[in-house]
Amino acid sequence: MKNLRLKAARAAKDLSQDELAALCNVSRQTISAIEKGDYNPTINLCIAICKALDKTLDELFWE
Amino acid sequence: MDKYADVLVYVTIFLIIAVVAVLTRRNSTGKNYDEMQLKIRGDAYKYSAMTMLLLMAAATMAYSLDSKAFEKYVEPSFAFAAVLFCGVMVFAIYAIVKGAFFSIDGKSTRYLALCAVVVLTNAIPMVTSIVDGTFMKDGVLSFENGGSNLLCVICFTAVICAIIGKTIANKKEMDE
After folding, report:
1. Fewer CB atoms inside 10 Å of the end CB: C or N, chain A?
2. A30, closest residue in chain B (CA to CA)
3. ipTM exceeding cut-off 0.90 for this assembly
4. Does residue A1 carry a pLDDT above 80?
5. Are B100 and A26 in contact (CB < 8 Å)?
6. How many helices (H) and strands (E) does chain A have?
7. C-alpha angle with apex B8: B6 to B14, nearest 5 degrees?
8. Chain B nearest CA to A30, separation (Å)
9. Pseudo-torsion of CA B153, B158, B160, B163, nearest 10°?
C-alpha cells in the first residue's frame, strides 16, 4: 500500500527524495520504495524519517 | 626454484589485496548500505546461489549422462565456468535493478568505466582469436581458449546494460 502521507509530508517540507534520504542516511531508492509501499522500514528508520519531517510515527506510519 | 617463485608471486598478490582492503576500510566513512539495500543484497545472494546450484546440477547431470555428446561442442571447463558467471550475473543484475548494488553515496560512473575496460580488454583478444581461428579448438569451446573472454564480455556487457537501464529509470522516476 502506498504511503501517501509520507510523500505529502516530504512535499510540505519541500524536500526531494534525495534530500530526505540524505537526512535519514539511507539511499534515495529506499525512500522511494517506502513511498510506493514496496518496503516496510524498521522502527529505527521510521523514527529517523519522522524526525527529519517533524512528524510523529502515528501521523506518518500508523494506519 | 620455480616453485618458490610461483609461491612468492601468489603471496605478493595476496599481500597487495590485503593492504588495499585494509586501507579502503580505514578510509571509508560511515555506513555503506542501508537496511533495504542489505535485505535486497541478501535476496540477491540467495537467488545467485540457487541459480548456481540448479545450473551446476543440470551441467553435472548432462555431462554424466552423455558426456561425449556435449564435449563435442563445449568442454566441461567452459560449462562450469559459465555456471559461475551466471551466478555472478544474477547477483549483480538483481542488485542493480533493485537499487542495492551501489552503496548509499556510490557513483555508478566509476563502475561503468571499470566494466567498459573489462569488456574491451576481453573483447579485443576474443575478436583476434576469432579472426586467427584459435577461438575454438577443433570446434570445441573451452575456457582456456576463447571461452573466458567470451564469458567476461557477456557478463560485463549485461552488467553495463543493467546499470544504464537503471540510471534511465532513476532519472524518469525523479522527473515524475
Report:
1. C
2. B36
3. no
4. no
5. no
6. 5, 0
7. 105
8. 6
9. -160
